[in-house]
Each structure stands twice: as C-alpha cells, then as structure tokens.
Amino acid sequence: MTYYQWIESPLAPLLLTGDGRSLTGLYLQGQKYFPTQTDAWTAAAQVEPFPQVQHQLDQYFAGQRQQFDLPLNPVGTDFQKQVWRCLPQIPFGTTSAYGTLAQMLGKPGAARAVGAANGRNPISIIVPCHRVIAADRQLTGYAGGIDRKRWLLQHEQALVSPEASSLLQTSLPLFERPYEIPANR
Questions:
Q1: Which of 15, 87, 129, 132 is flagged as catalytic?
Q2: Is it the case that residue 176 has pLDDT exceeding 70?
C-alpha cells in the first residue's frame, strides 16, 4: 500500500509517499519523474513516518537541521540505490561532482550513469541530490528545476560559516567548496 500526504514548503508543495514504516518518496510539485497517483494510494497525514518527516523538514527550512534521521526505502535499481546512499555523505553546504561520486563508487567512468541515477532520486532534499553539480561547477540536472536547486544550495550555504566550510574542505577532500552562486543568474 502507498500512503501519501501533501505538505507546504518554501520551495513548492511537497508530496510525501510512504509504506507505513518508511518514506519512499518526497517530490516537489511539478518536478520531472513525478509519480502518478493510483486508486491504491491512501491519503494519510498521521501514518509513519510522515509526522517525523514534516517536523524534520520544518527544522531544515528554518535553518535548525543539517542532517535527517528518518527511515527511508526508495525504490530503484541496485546501482541507483548505491548512488543514493552516497548523496547524504556530501556535507551540508558543500557540493560534489558526478565524476567524484562515480569514483566513490569505484566506477570512475560512470559519471553519466551517476547523473542519471541522481536525477531519478525519489527522495528529494532529504537525500541531497541537489548538492551534485557538473565538474565545471555549473548547476545541472535537477529534476525539481535549476531554480529550486539554486535555492536549496543558497539556503544551506547561508547557514554554513566560512570556518566550517574551510574545515569541511580540508578534512573531506572528495567534496568541493561551497558552490558560489553567480549574482547575475
């Protein structure tokens, strides 16, 4: 059974999907690969883990949470799940490139495949696919839209002090410095 609930956010209305134990999806209204609701779906605001998800997302958007602690059960291929497991390792307020993630997976030639899997991430924001950018530091490939990706990166970077950012950069060489948002874009 698939349970669902709509919640509000500063970005867009968010659709939560779950199985009664775990979050299976978090989608921004209008995003690419948005699921099709069926008659088998049941609206249920108080089904687990929806209250926890709402609370933690509220904290995230208020600048009070940098990591999520929720039961997740995304549906995808084994390779997609490998990619999605890497995404929460990208520290809050920093970015990584598709090629870097491919190297982390032991598949240095698989940057495009990593990009495709990243784009199919069914649990936006919580599994931070927005932190992945092109090797040339351009914003690319966010199913929720580039403007929303930019917003999420700006939101996170506004909360990371320069000292914390430089510490992350020196202690975790696989990850990039925070993305510098161009003023004119």
A1: 129
A2: no
